[in-house]
Structures are given as C-alpha cells and as structure tokens.
Design brief:
190 residues, alpha+beta, Glutaredoxin, nine-stranded mixed β-sheet, 5 helices, 9 strands
Amino acid sequence: MLTGGSVIVLQRGVPTLSSTETQSDTSGGSSGTINSKTTLPIQLSTLRNGESTEGTIQIPTAGMPTIIDLFATWCTPCQTQMDALSTVYNKYNDQVRFVSVTNERIGGTLTRADIRSWWDEHDGKWSVGLDPQSRLMSVLGAQGLPYIALTDPTGDIQWEDVGVTSVSTLQNKLDAILTESEWVWLQSYI
C-alpha cells in the first residue's frame, strides 16, 4: 500500500530544489563535497521513540559527522538498509550522529504508532525525523529510497548513495570522514 507523498513521487518523481554535481566512485555512490551550504542545515520534527525524542532536530548536526538516512515504512529495500545501519550504529554511535527521516504523511492510513512499530521491528535506535513535505529529500536531490548521505562535522555532504548500502561501504566511508575530521582537528592545534 502506498501512503502519503509516495504516490506523488511515483507519479511525478522526486522534486528537486537545486542541482549538484558529484563524482561517481566505484561503490555506486557519490563522493566529493557536495555544495550543501545554501540548503542545509534543515530543521525537522521528530518522533518520540527509543532514543528519539519528540521535538525538532537540525540536520546535519553541527560539529559532528552525520548519517542521514531517508526511508519509508512501505519501502522493502529500506528494511534491508536498517540492518546495515543498526550494525554501523552499534560501532559508531558515540562518534557519529544518526538520523533517519521519512516523508510519509501522518493521518489516514498511517499513524505515528505505525512508524514507531516499524522502527522497533527493525531495531531503530536513533532519531526519527518526519518530513511530510519532502523538504530534505528535495534539498538533497535524492532520487529514490533508501538514500544515505554522510556529512563531515562542518555539515558538508561527503558521500551519498541511493539503494541499499552495505555495512562495509558505510564503515569505509565513515572511517574516511572520521580520519579527515581528526586530521583537521589536530591541525588546528599545531
């Protein structure tokens, strides 16, 4: 069953506010800094669940690398992606901010309880953002789900991928961002 904005996305495609150029890498994702300064950060409402509290969240998190995961409860590949994200979260949650965002609309056939139930069923332990207007998806230029973007501590997107991303790819990309972040931090004290 399709809900919320998913019907619009299937009919018209994902809306885009700005275009960015990226360099493709061998893992199927994009690497290189993507110009996000004019569009990020963005504030979104959050869903109370597990470690996620009801309120708002800034994406990306200032001063910390951030994994941005776009998902939907109707998206079968998103379920597979959650397995990889849970594994990576268990290793990196003290060094990296994790946030998953759904563009599904609450109301009608989908409730907050439905999203919470899906989240619990798939071992989600980090913040869940709600973006029924698909603002973040548009800002990022995401063309499908699941979608992952990794930012450095300054909020610049360093890598992105559409589709299921493996644990090893996520770990390699995060390690590179964390190593670069440590190097920049050390240089500031030299």
